[in-house]
Amino acid sequence: MEYFTNRNGLQLACNLSIKYPDDKKIYIVCALYPSEIFFFSDFVYQHLDANVCKLDLTGEGRSQGERVFYKYTKDADDLDDTVKFLTSKGYSVDGIIGASKYGTSVILYAGLYGEVKNIISVSPKFNMSEFPDFLSSNFETLKNNGEIVYNAFGEDWNFTWEMIREVQSIDMKKICERARGNIYVIYGLEDQFCPYLECLELAWELNDKCKGTYSFDCDHCLIGILDEVLEIIERVIS
Questions:
Q1: In a shared domain, residues 114 and 191
Q2: pLDDT digits over 111-136, tens only?
Q3: Neighbours of 74 (CB within 10 A)
């Protein structure tokens, strides 16, 4: 486990798996907890045939900061800080991989910074004004009280009105216009949180910057198809 300080003065944690010490290319995979549900990052970290940095973004895992569900622009800032940290250690970040919430965050990174060649986005959102049913039904409470705590996957998540406003202010069309890098989108046809039509809309707005879309007959958590997803990632980075 290594630690570095982000632009907000928080210590972020990351694990480096250096399989090829003479090759300075490295790939960042964003870790979303609880890992027993969102185990995608652990699987990539362990099995990808490349040097990998598994990153705990602000509030996740062993990183400092408040654990909140939405904070996409701060995630993008964390990714930029991580790229700078790895560069300072002599590595060349060749790709960033994110799933679920972080599938969206890596797209924002491409639009706000765009300093990395390959972006692999798994199960991202595009329509930022649409929220899960549990959140929509609590909008008045959220607006009046300023925040709510919701238990999902056995974990408590803080949702604040400020976060909702931040999410709604994100213009994904503009992000797609500004995005740089080769972007690949992977999605599940039965995704209950990020409908596959949103992924297709994202790919459409990215236009020729989207170098590939890949669909699987699975839900949001990619259960049963991680080997296939890993094969796609390895083809992208080879």
A1: yes
A2: 999 999 999 999 898 988 777 677 77
A3: 21
